[in-house]
Write a structure and sequence with these properties.
175 residues, mainly alpha, rod-shaped
């Protein structure tokens, strides 16, 4: 397109150059015309080269996109196996979580039952201790069974170390 415009320009101005006595200008014009033509050819070649590079880049990009979008059967199998394993792991996790929740509820129920039994035990113990009259027991033991308090010479004292308990290895001797 540019070359045609340049040609038209030179064609219209040719008569002027030919009619002039300065033939050197016509030579320079011819050289200039050839130079413009050469520049135009070089520009076209550069343009073609640039288009070629762009096509190659686009082709490489398209190839990469196609490769990225294509899924091989091995990859599909790998993904399927991975998803199955993940599903199994999640199912086991949910089962363990369910068992844990059930055990926590069971422990809470047993603790509640234990507290109820302790309260009942304490109530029965208090009822028993209130029902026994210790004065009546002492009176029956002294009158009916012949119990007597020990004399001063019957009592033996011994020292115990700082321990809270004592082990008895043999019977206490009688007098």
């Amino acid at each position: 397109m540019r070359q045609q415009k340049d040609l038209q320009y030179w064609e219209t101005n040719r008569t002027y150059i030919d009619g002039n006595t300065a033939r050197e200008l016509a030579m320079q014009a011819e050289q200039r015309k050839e130079q413009i033509h050469q520049e135009y050819v070089e520009w076209q070649e550069e343009e073609q080269e640039q288009r070629k590079r762009q096509r190659q880049v686009r082709a490489a990009a398209q190839k990469n996109r196609d490769r990225a979008l294509s899924i091989s059967p091995g990859y599909v199998l790998f993904i399927a196996v991975t998803m199955a394993v993940m599903g199994a792991v999640f199912a086991c996790y949910l089962q363990l979580q369910s068992d844990l929740n059930k055990n926590v509820r069971s422990v809470a129920a047993l603790e509640s039952e234990l507290l109820d039994l302790k309260d009942d035990n304490d109530a029965v113990q208090k009822k028993i201790s209130n029902s026994i009259d210790m004065e009546n027991v002492r009176q029956q033991a002294m009158d009916e069974l012949g119990m007597v308090y020990p004399q001063e010479d019957q009592i033996e004292y011994f020292e115990v170390e700082n321990d809270d308990y004592m082990n008895q290895y043999e019977d206490i001797p009688e007098r």
